[in-house]
Every structure is written in structure tokens, then in C-alpha cells.
Amino acid sequence: MALPEPRVAATTGLDGASEQCWDVIVIGAGPAGAMAAREAARGGASVLLVDRASFPRPKVCGCCINGAAIGVLNDVGLGSLLQQHHARELRAVRLASAGRFANIRLSEGVSLSRERFDTALIQAAIDAGAEFLDTTQALVGDTTVDARKVILKQGTTEQFTSAKAIVIAGGLGCRVFVEPDVDERKASASSRVGAGTVLDVAPAEFISGTIYMACHKHGYVGLVRLEDDRLDVAAALDADAIKQHGGIAVLVDQILATAGLPVPPALKNAPWHGTGRLTQHRDHLVHPRCFFIGDAAGYVEPFTGEGMAWALASGRAVVPIVLEFLRNRRQTWAMIAWAATHGELIDNRARLCRCVSRLLRFPTLVSIAVRLLKYAPWLAQPVVRSLNASFAQKATKVKVRSQR
Ligand SMILES: Cc1cc2nc3c(=O)[nH]c(=O)nc-3n(C[C@H](O)[C@H](O)[C@H](O)COP(=O)(O)OP(=O)(O)OC[C@H]3O[C@@H](n4cnc5c(N)ncnc54)[C@H](O)[C@@H]3O)c2cc1C
After folding, report:
1. Neighbouring-strand partners of residue 281
2. Residue 175 belongs to what domain range?
3. Is residue 50 included in any domain, yes or no?
4. Helices and strands in the chain: count of H runs, count of E runs
5. pLDDT band with cut points at 50, 70 and 90 for residue 1
6. Residue list, ligand 1 pocket, CB within 6 Å
7. How far is CA 401 from CA 286, 319, 393, in A?
8. Burial of residue 286 (number of CB atoms within 10 Å: 0-12, 13-18, 19+)
9. Which residue owns the Cα nearest ligand 1 atom 18?
């Protein structure tokens, strides 16, 4: 079945965006930013959502939306968005390492292309009343008495605007401050880099509803069928190994072949997109009038496929704090509240994710784990359950209420 092309159009231009001081400017319209913009608009704030890209845009991602992410979408009334866009139900993960395989059952989760998912979320933000400005880089400037300046750049044209609060959802490695020194994000030197492509044609062995994960000493590659039957390929790779092998496609080819999975012939000439180092963190999740969410707040290598859940959950959880900050204007309270809420939402999950990504550095351990899971796949269920578990929202509500 041919699906309609995903599309979302800007609702304002540079002139419109600079005519007022916004309650909230959200920088970055990925899942984190679109969710925050929608929820802030639903809360009655005037919201400008800005992205430097035009949508749909390519994004390196495994495109698997887990139970925790679905839980956030359901909570905010967007549960039907996944069916509307023909997301494919996920039923299993097939782990492959050195010619050995283990199948792990999944009870929740779907695959959906980022083209379709991201544009649908932006449209939901627009429907809730947010203005959307695309192909525009936003850079945060000076603080004034009651707002913070933002420069909006389209090519060589620049305009100023301002907002009482700024939600920074620019993703991994984003640059959002005029002054580069303000941006104290730290990337782990040993971290892998990301790479991804989407193939129009792929071997029939890759069936819909299964995530294929090939593990190797130089990284791992995930493959999944999307809503339109294309095959999404996303990898975390050692940067040195990419150089040694002469490029991403050659290394991915080797990882798949060594693991025992079919190598799609189209891989070689596919348009690959890359990322910087994947594991990054920020010491401070708040700057004056600015709140970091999603990957911009920190990220861990993606084996467990949780990034979009963290992005959606943080995009949702930051809004009550931002709205309360607009009312009480207490910067210190907002900083403490957001750091605590973000920690409660993400820290335990990030710890689990970090443990899994460390384990993957030891090929012998991976090989033992795959052999074990082949005969006792139920051993993986506690991890699967905890990845799918819904986010606790109680903490945010309690903290915000206690300030009233
Ligand atoms: C290899 C790989 C596989 C993955 N697989 C999965 C998976 O299967 N499941 C899962 O849940 N997660 C997965 N992830 C993680 C997931 O892709 C991210 O966690 C998620 O996209 C984070 O969303 P975000 O909104 O924070 O950032 P993004 O989706 O990166 O969006 C950030 C947006 O900000 C914009 N932007 C940046 N700077 C500026 C600026 N200055 N001005 C204006 N716009 C700006 C960018 O153009 C971009 O559109 C994977 C990641 C990688 C690398």
C-alpha cells in the first residue's frame, strides 16, 4: 500500500516570529521539542517551535518506539497517532553474534520512520496552537530583565526575537548558544558514533515485526522494517574502525556478515548519515531561562532503543515546570525542579543503558549472552519489561504543586 508523503509546513516566517516576546521558544522539533511545544501550547503559553531543518528530514535512528514512549503518547492523548501513521507492531528482537542467534519476545513497541513520526508530532504541536518555523537556526543570546534574546538565522538573514523561557531540544551535539563557551556538553572519548540509512529494497529474510541486532567487537547494527516496508538500518560504530575499514558501508557489511545476517546489496551505495560521539552528558540542565531536554540534555549509546522515550518523557515533564516558572519567575526553583525531575525520569534508565553498552564492548561476554538467551530467552524479560515500563509522573506533579 502506498502511503501519503509525510509533510508539515511552517506556520510563520522570520518576520512573524520576531514580532513578539514569546512565553516559550522551543529550539529543535524532534520528538522532545515537538512534545514540549504541544504541551506548553495546551497549557496556554504562546509558543514558537523552531528547527534548522525542513521536514521530513533524515535522522539517524533505529525507529523503534518502545512501550515507555507509547505510554507517554497515550498519556497526552496522542496514542492514536501511531496507528494513524501505520506504525508496524514489533514482536521480537533477533540478536546475532558470530553466527549464533537468540530470539527475544516483545510484548510492546512499534516501528515508524522518523520522517513520519516527527512530522506527525510537529503537526500535533501546531494543532495545539504552537507556531512552527522551519529552516531556521536559533541561537540563544543575552538575558534581559524579563526575557532572553534569541537570534533566528535563515542563511545570511538574521532577526532577533525573545522569550521568557527557552526549551532547548536541539538533539545530540547541537549548538544553541551565541557564545560557544556556555555550551559545556561533555562527550565520552570512548563513545561510539552513530550511522544510519533507509533502504528501499532489502532481502526478504528481514521480516516485519522483528528487530535484527548484529553485534560485533567494532559496534552493532540494528535493522527493522518500517511502515512502508523500507528497511531502516542504524548503527553504533567505533570511529577508528570506520577509518580502518574504509568507510561506514564496508564496516556495516562486515558486522552483518560476521554476525550471520544477510547483507542487503543496496547498503554499499546507500546515502549514509552520521553523528558525533553518542554518549554525552551535561552538568547543568538549566541556564538562565533555558531548560535542556531530550538528547540535548544527555544521551547514552542506543542499543536499548530508548532515546525517543526519554525525549518524549522529558518534553512532557519540563512543561509544568516551565509554566510555573512563567508565573513565579523563580529561576533557582526552576533549576532545582528541572534537574531533580529529569534525574528521576531518566537516571535509572540511563544507568541500565550504560551497563548494556559496556557489556557490548566484550565480544566473549556477548557471545555467551547470545548462547544463553538462545536456550533461555525468558532471561531477557526483566530488561525488556524495565525498558517498556512507564515513566513516573508523580514526582513532577508533587514538586510543582509544592511551590504553589
Ligand atoms: C544509531 C541510533 C539508533 C537509535 N535508535 C533508536 C531507537 O530505535 N529508538 C529510540 O527510541 N531511539 C533511538 N535512537 C535515539 C533517538 O534517535 C534520539 O534519542 C531522539 O531522536 C532524540 O530526540 P530529540 O528530540 O532530543 O532530538 P532530535 O530528534 O535529534 O531533534 C533535534 C532537532 O533539533 C534541531 N536543531 C538542532 N540545533 C538547532 C538550532 N540551533 N536551531 C534550530 N534547530 C536545531 C535539529 O535539526 C533536529 O531536528 C537512536 C539513535 C541513534 C544514533
Report:
1. 186, 298
2. 14-189+278-396
3. yes
4. 12, 21
5. low
6. 27-33, 50-53, 59-64, 137-138, 169-171, 174-176, 194, 196, 234-236, 275, 278, 294-296, 302, 305-309, 311
7. 20, 13, 13
8. buried
9. 307
Question: Is residue 366 in a domain?
Answer: yes
CATH of the domain at 122: 3.50.50.60
Domain count, the chain: 1
* Residue 131 located in a structural domain: yes
Extract the C-alpha cell encoding 403. Answer: 511551590
Q: Tell me: the pLDDT tens digits for 255-279?
A: 999 999 999 999 999 999 999 889 8
CA distance 309 to 115: 17
- Mean pLDDT, residues 57-61 taken together: 94
| Helix (H) or strand (E) segment spanning residue 363 | helix 363-375
User: C-alpha grid cell for residue 196?
Assistant: 544510519
In the structure, what pLDDT confidence band is assigned to residue 399 with cuts at 50, 70 and 90?
A: low
Mean of the per-residue pLDDT values for the chain? 92
367 CA distance to ligand 1 centroid (A)? Answer: 30
On the question of pLDDT at 402 being above 50, the answer is: no
Complete DSSP assignment for 117-185: HHHHHHHHHHHTT-EEE-S-EEEEEEE-SS-EEEEEEETTEEEEEEEEEEEE---TT---BSSGGG---
Could you tell me where the DSSP H helices lie in 218-306?
A: 239-245, 248-259
Sign of torsion over alpha carbons 332, 337, 338, 340: positive
Residue 103 inside a domain? The answer is: yes
**Atom from ligand 1 closest to the CA of residue 293:** 26
CA 47 remoteness from chain centre: 21
Residue 78: DSSP 8-state: -
> Rounded distance, CA 45 to CA 32, Å?
17
φ, ψ at 262 (rounded to 5°) = -65, 145
SS3 assignment, position 240: helix
